[in-house]
Amino acid sequence: MTNDLNDVMTKYDQRGVSASKEDVHAAIQHLDKGLYPSAFCKILPDLAAGNGKYCNLLHADTAGTKTSLAYVHWRETGDLSVWPGVAQDAIVMNLDDMACVGCTNDIILSSTIGRNKGLIPAEVIAAVIRGTSDFVEKMRDHGVQLYLAGGETADVGDIVRTIDVGFTAFARMKRSEVLVPSIRSGDVIVGLASFGQSTYETEYNGGMGSNGLTAARHDVLSKVYAEKYPESFDPRLPNEVVYTGNRLVTEKILVENQNISVGKLILSPTRTYLPVLQEILQTQRKKIHGIIHVTGGGQTKVLKFVKDVHIVKDNLFELPPLFKLIQESSKTPWREMYQVFNMGHRMEIYLPAQHADTVMAIAEKYGIKARVIGRVKRSEGEKVTVKSSFGKFEYM
Known about the structure:
single chain; disordered N terminus
């Protein structure tokens, strides 16, 4: 490991975050892994009805530290429009994990919002809740049925510095439709872009998703925000890792012939692939050997779901402007960038090469760029190789 990489890992540790969540995985390793231990998310017996042909999915996730950036942007600009996106972030981090096991419809959602009432007024809560209902309606327009089951909004200023937004999702599906990863030698990898503008998005999406936000926020934004909004970060953090960049949230940069502010670019709502995956699964379910949501762990995420294969990613999308901005600001080694961020695609579909064109055509119908980004080779043990214009990196 290089000194540069050591420096980066130390910086992440000092900020109290982890790309791979080693502590969490160690804490839960003894827990029951459900009906399909190797599935992308935990699947339980049909506890509601006791029907052996069905199973239940219960999933929980949050928008993470994206809320801190939304808070800074809102305080700087008064723009409430960033808050509905935070609701979408938390919802999609559930939905797209569930889609990886083949569940794309009839999902019940319940929210848990904790706020510091002294800093987060009613209008912000209203914007988050409105964003929730608007997202649900938009998905219904595209054939994805979601249902709101209420939730809890609590004033917990003693333990929440600004606001925390989370969702729990529940679904019931046929066991015969569950997709369990069986990624094998000879498969190709179709990547679905995280950036651009899909047919169901109203503006350009920078592709951030909801992973790596702590690094992006502190590495890109100016120290001025530490002075103006000390509530936006942990006061125990060393000064040298807090807001170390030189950009303002309102500063505009040119992206695909559009002037977009740095804050809005990083805050781009996490894109859901549910409309796309639902259509793909209608005809290709039996042909797909795995769907991987590229979240925590970045381009190495797939390592948790394979055995004795070498994943070669050598035809990635051209790096989107957002990730160039993060790397230029942070000087993070490229090896680490690919391990923390999605770097341009946030969904991977593993399947035989003869079916790749069908999958890509469906994605592009929704305005989402898709391409064969790599392939799977036989190996002793598990390995990912990323080949890019910035270098060749191997992870095991």
